Amino acid sequence: MALGSLSGLGSQATARQGNALGMLGVGSGILASLAAVGFPPAVLAQFAGAAAIGGTIGSVLGKRITATELPQMVAALHSVVGLAAVFTSIASVLADVSHISTLHLVTAYLGVLIGELCFYLPSLLRNLYIFARWNNIHRIYCCLLEISRTHVLKTIDASPTAPNQWFAFGS
Questions:
Q1: What is the structure's pLDDT at 52?
Q2: Looking at beta carbons, which pairs linking 99-102 to residues 24 or more positions away fall under 8 Å?
Q3: CA torsion sign, 131 to 132 to 135 to 136?
Q4: Which one of 5, 41, 56, 117 has the fewest CB atoms closer than 10 angstroms to its CB?
Q5: Where are the alpha helices (DSSP H) in the chain?
Q6: Total domains in the fold of the chain
Q7: Per-residue pLDDT tens over the stretch 11-66
């Protein structure tokens, strides 16, 4: 379905069919994942409610947006995904603090760091690129990668048990 969706989006004449195949593919993947985990009915009802609210908001925004405003919409939705990553990472740590490991703390930290970058970075880069015609975006990416690397190394060093074996590949 994914390939049919992508090929359908390749031309204006088959775009509706491509959208339908894409929605069908993503929907069936979500349903299969939910069924495989075996969530209780209360959790499935919460998921259905959240999906209905999100679908309604997306459909209202989709009808109001014009083609020239698409980059702004993509940046805004990317920011929402980043915010969701932040909340998910924080919740994964707060769910059961008694059995937390160093690996879990590091991955949660990375989730928060990457999520917050995704939250504010699209708007910043969009404004720099579109409005200021700034063409050196690669410098911002290099700086952000260096900041991320430094934060990860400091988090690992400050963890209760600094596992040096994480970096001992092949041993």
A1: 92
A2: 102/156, 102/159, 102/160, 102/161, 102/162, 102/163
A3: negative
A4: 41
A5: 2-8, 15-37, 41-64, 70-94, 102-126, 137-158
A6: 2
A7: 888 888 888 888 898 888 888 888 888 888 888 899 899 989 988 988 888 888 88
> Is 14 within 8 Å of 8 (Cβ atoms)?
yes
Tell me how far apart the alpha carbons of residues 28 and 71 are, in angstroms, rounded to a whole number. Answer: 28
Do residue 73 and residue 132 come from a single domain?
yes
Domain assignment of residue 109, yes or no: yes
Task: Please give the Cα distance from 161 to 166 (Å, whole number).
Answer: 12
Whether residue 102 contacts residue 163, with contact meaning beta carbons closer than 8 Å, is answered with yes
pTM of the full structure: 0.52
Same domain, 31 and 65: no
Q: pLDDT for 109-167, tens place per residue?
A: 888 888 877 777 766 666 666 555 555 566 666 776 777 677 666 666 665 554 444 44
Neighbours of 86 (CB within 10 A): 18
9, 81: one domain: no
Domain that holds residue 5: 1-38
Map tokens 């999520």 to a residue: 115
